[in-house]
Amino acid sequence: MNSIIAAAIARGIPEKTIVLLLLLPIIATIVAIIRQIIGFKTFGIYVPSILTIVFLDVGLGPGLIVFLAILFTGTFFRYLLKKVRLLYLSRMALVLTLVGISVILLFLLAAYLGINSITRMSIISVLIMIILVERFVNAQIERGFEDAATLTLETLAISVVGYFILVWQSLQNFILHYPWIVLIIILLNLILGRWSGLRLMEYIRFREVLRHGKKQ
């Protein structure tokens, strides 16, 4: 695999792109461990993984500011349009349109205040965050605001944890020089996929029941 990576870099493929692609399995595995072993709930495995990649691309501070702004405006416009009798797809199209306009205004405000870390953000990363709004708004419709808020916070927390792990330069250098580590990640997921025990959060939640069962 080292020769494949070296050949890819030699032919002009950006090193950062290769590193991010090699880190993606690690991100997904971290999310799987946190969900299956610890017991956190998230919007699947894709959303926290892609958010971590976005934060790596644009920086945690600017990424959080723009993401929370998008999330807030998406929720606001969803409630604003709640009383308007529209089909779901048309309503979501309107929400995404209004969120897009709000992001333009946010960028103008950042440019006026001289916050270059926001104005220089990759358009692809911004569009990904806007598109993810549908998942969060849909959760509010299906689960209610409180459950959706909890799910959102846990998803965001896992993404931030993933960011701090993957921003570690030594890890990036290691995965670039030893890309075969991905094969170990595959093996780890095969083992993790057979996990049948209680999650850590369940041990905490049912500790009284478990303690009572041991006494009997």
What does this structure look like?
- The protein has 216 residues and is mainly α.
- It has one domain.
- It contains 12 helices and no strands.
- It has helices at 2-10, 15-38, 46-58, 60-80, 88-113, 116-119, 123-143, 145-166, 169-177, 181-192, 200-205, 207-215.
- Helix 2 packs across helix 3 (46-58), helix 2 (15-38) packs across helix 8 and helix 3 crosses helix 4 (60-80).
Count of individual helical segments: 12
Radius of gyration: 20 Å
Mean pLDDT: 79
As residue ranges, the low-confidence spans are none
- Derived from helix and strand composition plus strand pairing, the structural class reads mainly alpha
Topology, element by element:
Layout: H1 2-10, H2 15-38, H3 46-58, H4 60-80, H5 88-113, H6 116-119, H7 123-143, H8 145-166, H9 169-177, H10 181-192, H11 200-205, H12 207-215
Task: Write a brief caption for the model.
This protein has helices at 2-10, 15-38, 46-58, 60-80, 88-113, 116-119, 123-143, 145-166, 169-177, 181-192, 200-205, 207-215. With 216 residues, the chain is mainly alpha-helical. It is globular and about 55 Å long.
